[in-house]
Amino acid sequence: MLTVSDVADRMYVSERTVFRWIKAGHLKAFRTGRVLRISEADLERFLHMYRTGRRATNLRAH
Q1: CA-CA distance, 49 to 27, in Å (whole number)?
Q2: For residue 8, what are the contacts with CB-CB under 8 A and spacing of at least 6?
Q3: Structure confidence by residue, pLDDT tens digits, 12-30
């Protein structure tokens, strides 16, 4: 499990950008207590979407 900070570091973006992706529904996350967590699999799906230009809604069907 990754934190928002972990994802931001890996993607070379700010934490705020990661929060925007989550809020927009592009990156799936869940809350454990007060901390948002992102699974490695969800990050990989997001990266695939990002690289191929596919929308997140298209990825959910696969």
Answers
A1: 10
A2: 14, 15, 17, 18
A3: 999 999 999 999 999 999 9
